[in-house]
Each structure stands twice: as structure tokens, then as C-alpha cells.
Amino acid sequence: MGLNLTLCMADWGHLREIPVKDRIRALNEAIWPTGLDHDDYGTLGLAEGWVWSRNQDPAWCAEYRFFCTSGSYKAQSRAGDGWDGMRVLVHTSLRDAMDRFLNGLIWDEDPANDPTLTGGGGFFPPATDRRWPNLLLVCSPEAATGKADAWGRAAPRLEELRSAFAAECEGWAGRPDTFEEFTTLVHERSDVVTEAAGRGWGLVGLP
Q: pTM (2 decimals)?
């Protein structure tokens, strides 16, 4: 079985009230609370877009279910590999905006500085904590705001990426099959970032 991604946005203020060692557990329990009946599980399991548990008062986190993928992390990884290949062919101003937007979401500019390795600077248990698998994404509220700003610069110019995509991705194994597949995933990521930034919340990717 492949790696799956559970992508959440969360109120960092609420999480700060929970001990670091318990924050991942708290997110998991908020998304799939114990005690749900069969109908509740069925409703949550089929939902797409933002999914909010009815057991939160006040609401402090939500899961995002992608429309364009089945929940597998593979599509995210393929898109990141695609961007890594095509970015050298992109105009500097657009490349800089896309780099800032995608870095840490689906692509790592410097893998050694991946915030998931340290649990987001200690906000979550680090990757060395054997009680929990490595997080796939940690994006603070401040980082989400910066990414939303970067997306605002990049979004009107996405069509400029088409030729770079054709040169570096079309026909390559392990990269998106089509330009539309790539841009659809990028647009969904932008919806996630924009919503989180608008609330002043952060993002977490649970495996």
C-alpha cells in the first residue's frame, strides 16, 4: 500500500494549549472522533473538500479531502518532482513566487531544512519520536500567509509554465501525466492555503 496524506488546517492557538507530545493524537481524534456511529463514518468517509467534525466546540481544525486525488500522497510527490524539474526553465519572477508557494507543500527547496524533521521547530513531536510516524507537512500560520501572498503573484501566470512542463514532465515516469493534472493539484493546494491564511491557522499533513 502507498503512503496516504491527511491534510488538516488547525488553530495553532488551540494546539498550544495541548502538550506537544499529544498534539498529533489530538488532531487525529478531532478528525475521526471515537464514538461515531456507522452513518457518521459513512458521511465523513465520502465527503470531499473541507470536512468538519460535529464534535468540536468551538471548531478548531478541519480535514481537506482532495477532489483530484484519492488521498494518496503519490500525486503530491509526483507534482513536486515535476516542479523540481521544470523550475529551471521558468522566468525568475514566476519561479520565485512558485518556489515560495510550493516549498514545504509538495516540494522542498532544501530537504535538510524540511520543518517536518523537527516537528515544525518543536511545535509537534520531531521525526525522531518513535511514537508517531513522520509528518508530511508542517506550515505555520505565518508561513501560510506568505504562501497565500506568493500564490497571488503566481496564479495569473500559470499558463507560462506549460512549455516548461512539456519539456520536463510529459512522458516522464514519476511526474504528472498532463499539465492540467499538475495545475489542478496546485489550484487545490492554493484553496487550502488561502483558507488557512484567511483564518490565521496553520496546516499539518498527517501520514
A: 0.90
